[in-house]
Design goal:
This protein has 174 residues and is mainly alpha-helical. The chain is 67% helix and 0% strand.
Length: 174
């Protein structure tokens, strides 16, 4: 893995692509430096604690509906609404870490905001689950960054006219 000390804040005069920062991780996801593993564990644990507190909050909301004597249908409707919204928010959030939304998905994502707000527990659990494996969005950004680096290296090699680099490129075995 290529180590980098440059960040988007430091000026770059070489034209080499810079990694895109991830919230709470910055660019430490590139080389897993700066307490990356500890940060990942802490954020996963924090998301789980927030989900537990959110579940407690929903329990109070449920008790308020149950005490209001609206009927069992209102209690059941509340439980189903939170369960469905949490499940939808979980799957949408987890899938959003592995692909960039296109223009068509942008309108769908904006309409999903209310569902994600209601199903916030699903969002928190998805964040915690992804943090156990990697920084949320790391796989997507790593692929894009490595692709950009490869393009940069190909352009740089083509511009310098380095015969040794050209020879290596032509002798690739498949």
């Amino acid at each position: 893995m290529r180590k980098t000390t440059r960040t988007p804040e430091t000026p770059d005069t070489s034209g080499e692509p810079l990694p895109e920062p991830i919230r709470f991780y910055g660019t430490t996801w590139v080389d897993h430096s700066g307490g990356y593993a500890l940060r990942r564990a802490g954020l996963a644990l924090g998301a789980l604690v927030a989900a537990a507190l959110g579940a407690l909050l929903l329990r109070f909301a449920y008790e308020g509906v149950a005490l209001s004597d609206l009927g069992s249908w209102a209690s059941l409707l509340l439980i189903v609404a939170f369960a469905v919204c949490s499940a939808m928010a979980f799957t949408r959030t987890l899938s959003s870490y592995s692909r960039r939304p296109d223009e068509k998905d942008a309108s769908v994502e904006s309409s999903m905001r209310s569902i994600r707000a209601i199903g916030f527990i699903g969002v928190l659990i998805a964040y915690a689950a992804r943090s156990v494996v990697e920084a949320p969005g790391e796989k997507l950004l790593r692929g894009e960054y490595e692709e950009a680096l490869a393009r940069y290296e190909r352009r740089r090699t083509a511009r310098t006219g380095n015969p040794a680099a050209k020879k290596k490129r032509g002798n690739k075995k498949k």
